Amino acid sequence: MPSYPTRSLRFLDKLEAETAGKGHHAEPGPQARVALDIIVAGAGLGGLSVAVALARKGHKVRVYEQTVTLAEVGAGIQIPSNSSRLLHKWGLEPFLKDKVVEPETITFRRWENGTPVGLTRLVPDFRRSFDAPYWVVHRAHFHQALRDLARSLGVELHLSSRVKSYDPTTPSLTLENGAVHTADLIVGADGLKSLARKSILSNTKETPPVSGYAAYRATVSVDQIAADPDLSWLTSRPNLNVWIGDNRHVMTYMISGGEKFNMVLSHPETTEPHTWNKDTTLQDMRSHFEGWDPALLKLMSLIDFTLKWPLLSASPLNRWVHEDAKMLIMGDAAHAMVPYMSQGAAMAVEDAAAFAAVLEQISDRSELPRALSVFEKVRKLRTSQMQEASLINAKLWHFADGPEQRARDAAMAPEVQGIHFIESPNQWSDPQTQIWCYGYDAEEEVLKGWRAEN
C-alpha cells in the first residue's frame, strides 16, 4: 500500500465570504444518463450520504434500516473541509441550521499543565484555502439533517427492515420478515458489523479488530463550564482543545450550536467490550487521567454520564465490489478506522460523492462494471491512506515524556509562536498534509480514474 503524502510520516522514522454567502438550496448538477434502481442497506451517516448523493442525480433510491426509530447515537463529530464542501453542494446547510459550530483553532496541549504545544488556525484559513469550513456538530443533528435532505429528494426510508441475507448475483436482499427486494444495484452501508461485507468477502471477520484503544464520550452543559472561573476560557471562543500525553489524549469542543461541550477521552484498552463493567465507567475514566492538567480534571469532574466505545481499525480490504458487479460496500463497512484524523464520517461522504459522480459517466448499463471498478480503485487508495494517517496520529499524540515527545513539541513550536514553518508533525497544520487531506476533491479524483480507464 503506498504511503499517504505527509511529512508527519517522515517525522516518525476560495474565499471565506464567497463560500459563506452561497445559497441554501441543493445544487442539482447534471443528471445521470442511466437512471438506476438502487437499494442502500443501512441508514447511518454513510447510508444516508450515499442515498442523498444518488437521489440528486436522478436515481431511484430505497434505504432499508434495521432500527425501529431512525436516530444516531454518540456525541460530537467533526466535519472537515473535504466533507463540508460536498455537503454544501448537496444543500445540507439549511437542514443543519444553527446546529454546527465552526472552531477558530485547534490547540494541542501538554498533558500535565495544558501548555500549548501545537496550534492549527482554522478560521479563516480553511475556508480561504479549501473553499469550505471546518465544522463540529452533534452526531444526532448531522444524522437528522441528512435524513431530512434525503426525504426531500424522494429517497424511500424503510425502518424495522433487518436484512437476513443478500444475493449479490440477482441482486437482492431478503429481510427477516421474508420479504425479498431486488434492484439494479445494492450498496451495503451497514457499518462495522457489516453483513454485506461478508457477502462480498466470505472469509472476512464480522467485526474489524480492536485497535488497542477505546474512548469515553461525554457532553457537559456549556453554561455549567462558563460559570466556573477556572474553566470559562474553554467556552469563550469556539475552539478545539486536545490534551496529549502518554498513550492517552482528550479532545474537547462545543457542539449543538454552542449549547453542549463535547469530550472524547482516548486511552489504551485491550479487553473485549463484553467484559467492561458499566457500573464503574466514571471511576475508570477518571483513573486513566490521574495527574493530568488540573483544569482538565476539574472539567472531567462535571461529567455525570459517559459511554465507553471500542476503537476499531480494519486493514484495507481486497475488494469492495462483488465479482458480478451488482453489489458493493462503502463507509465503515469497507474502511473502518480509528478516529485520530477525524475523517471516518468524511470518508463515507467522499465515498457517496465519488460513487454518484462515476455512475453519472455511464451511458449504458454495460458500463456499470467498469464504473464500479474505477470507484473501488480510487476509493480504496484514498481510504487506506487515511487509515494509515489515523494510525500515525495514534503514535504522534501518545508519546511518553522523553526524546520523542520533546522532538515532536519542538517541531510544532513554530505554530504556537506564530513563526513561519514549512512542515510539522501536526497533521492538521502541515501544509502538504493539509492539501492532501482537506483539499481533496472526491468527485474530481474518481473522474480522473474514469478518464484514465477510457
Automatic annotation (TrEMBL):
Pfam families: FAD_binding_3 (PF01494)
Domain FAD-binding as annotated: residue spans: 37-377
Entries under Gene3D superfamilies matching the protein: FAD/NAD(P)-binding domain
GO molecular function, one term: monooxygenase activity
Keyword RNA-binding applies: no
Keywords attached to this entry: FAD, Flavoprotein, Monooxygenase, Oxidoreductase
Keyword presence, Cell inner membrane: no
Similarity-based family: Belongs to the paxM FAD-dependent monooxygenase family.
PANTHER family: HYDROXYLASE, PUTATIVE-RELATED (PTHR13789:SF306), MONOOXYGENASE (PTHR13789)
Identification of the protein by name: FAD/NAD(P)-binding domain-containing protein
